[in-house]
Amino acid sequence: PKYDPDNELDSYELLKKYSIQGLKKRGLENNPIYVDRMNYELLQLHLTEIEDYYLVVMDYINFCRNNSIPVGPGRGSAAGSLICYLIGITTIDPMKYDLLFGRAINPGRALQYKFF
C-alpha cells in the first residue's frame, strides 16, 4: 500500500520523523543503543521499500486506539521491531526483552517484499 499523509516528506523521512518523536516521548533520544537500533531498522525498512506499510499499519492502529477499538500489544516478529514500538504499532519494547528485528526484515529476504 502507498501511504498518502498530505505531507511534504517522503515515506522514509516521515517514518524517521515519527520514530524520533517516539524516542523523545520515551526519553530515549540520548541512548546510543536505541538510536543505533532505530537507525539500523530504518535503513533495513528503506532497503526493502516497506516504509509505507509501516505507516499504514501505524495509521489504522492509531485509529483503533483513538476510537476505543481494542488492539493487542503486538505479536509475532513485529514485536521485535523497535520502529513498531516507537511509532505505536506495538507496546512492547524489544530492547527490554532482547527481541530480534531480523526475524521480520533483513536484507537476505528483501526480494520477497517487492510484491508491494
Keywords:
45% helix; single chain; 4 helices; 116 residues; mainly alpha
Task: Describe the fold and architecture.
The chain has 116 residues and is mostly helical. The chain is built from 4 helices and no strands. Helix 1 packs antiparallel against helix 2. The longest helix is centred in the middle third of the chain and has 16 residues. The chain is globular. The mean pLDDT is 87.
Tell me the helix content. Answer: 40-55%
Percent range for β-strand residues: under 5%
What characteristic shape results from the CA principal axes? globular
Number of helices: 4
Head-to-tail CA distance between termini? 7 Å
Mean pLDDT: 87
Order of SSEs, N→C?
HHHH
Low-confidence stretches: none
Largest sheet: none
Cα-based radius of gyration, to the nearest Å: 14 Å
Number of strand elements: 0
- Secondary structure class reads mainly alpha
Layout: helices, strands, pairs:
Blueprint: H1 11-25, H2 32-47, H3 51-66, H4 82-86
Helix pairs in contact: 1-2, 1-3
